[in-house]
């Protein structure tokens, strides 16, 4: 066991496991929705056990917001208010001893600068984590599914295109609305049916026919609806990729 001071001057305990790795604490901003946030906890701990073995698990702390507030502000277009909520949650995590912050949602990364510019610890962006995973796969032309905000604004595609040289395809406008409605009206409320699955699978097939070599499920609830068994091209589960990247970061060899 060792001690160090973080950037804010607080004394922190560094824990070393039996493999000699120093494990750091992962801070999670969850609740958007809680259906997918619970998967982050599973992904983190499964990956930690896979790497370290035995009964090891992840060191993490979560601040979970009320999604009804976020949803209301989202549809009002009040991104500034959402950004302030995210900033406060991130500062809470930093005060709680987190060494890194993850925002457990894709869409709300639209205001990620409210986090990255106001904390003294690293912020791990979900699009960057996803971009690295796609780059490792060798694929170049990728379909992107998520909320309309994620598909239509450039905060996500800009990272994938500019930083990783990917070509991004999104559905036609009417199909973007279908995906968006399925997410907000069904998935975030815990409703996952075969009818919804087939609707998403059909949209993926259309994008595949346009040349998509893989599909980014850029909504953390979508992998709860479809899996690699449902489509013919590789899928990129952004929540799982994000969580696994955080575990790799937290284990300092």
Topology:
Blueprint: E1 2-5, E2 11-16, E3 22-23, E4 26-30, H1 34-52, E5 60-64, H2 67-76, H3 79-95, E6 100-103, H4 113-116, E7 123-124, H5 126-137, E8 141-145, H6 148-152, H7 154-164, E9 167-169, H8 173-185, H9 194-209, E10 214-217, E11 235-237, H10 238-250, E12 251-252
Parallel strand pairs: 4-5, 4-6, 6-7, 8-9, 8-10, 10-11
Antiparallel strand pairs: 1-2, 2-3, 3-12
Helix pairs in contact: 1-10, 5-7, 5-10, 8-9
Give a written overview of the molecule.
With 253 residues, the protein is of the alpha/beta class. The chain contains ten helices and twelve strands. The strands form three sheets. It has a four-stranded antiparallel β-sheet. A four-stranded parallel β-sheet has the order 5-4-6-7, with helices on both faces. α1 packs across α10, α5 packs across α7 (154-164) and α5 packs across α10. The chain starts with a strand and ends with a strand.
């Amino acid at each position: 066991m060792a001690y160090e001071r973080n950037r804010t001057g607080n004394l922190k305990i560094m824990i070393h496991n039996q493999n000699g790795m120093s494990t750091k604490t992962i801070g999670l901003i969850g609740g958007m929705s809680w259906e997918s946030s619970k998967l982050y906890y599973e992904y983190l701990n499964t990956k930690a056990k896979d790497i370290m073995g035995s009964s090891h698990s992840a060191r993490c702390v979560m601040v979970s917001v009320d999604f009804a507030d976020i949803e209301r502000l989202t549809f009002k277009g009040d991104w500034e208010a959402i950004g302030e909520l995210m900033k406060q949650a991130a500062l809470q995590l930093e005060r709680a001893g987190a060494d890194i912050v993850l925002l457990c949602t894709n869409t709300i990364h639209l205001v990620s600068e409210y986090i990255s510019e106001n904390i003294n610890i690293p912020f791990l962006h979900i699009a960057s984590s996803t971009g690295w995973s796609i780059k490792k796969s060798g694929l170049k032309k990728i379909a992107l599914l998520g909320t309309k905000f994620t598909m239509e604004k450039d905060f996500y595609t800009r990272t994938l295109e500019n930083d990783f040289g990917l070509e991004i395809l999104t559905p036609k406008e009417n199909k973007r609305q279908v995906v968006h409605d399925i997410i907000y009206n069904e998935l975030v409320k815990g409703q996952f049916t075969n009818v919804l699955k087939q609707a998403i699978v059909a949209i993926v097939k259309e994008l595949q026919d346009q040349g998509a070599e893989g599909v980014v499920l850029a909504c953390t609830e979508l992998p709860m609806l479809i899996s690699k068994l449902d489509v013919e091209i590789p899928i990129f589960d952004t929540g799982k990729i994000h969580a696994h990247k955080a575990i790799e970061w937290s284990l300092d060899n």
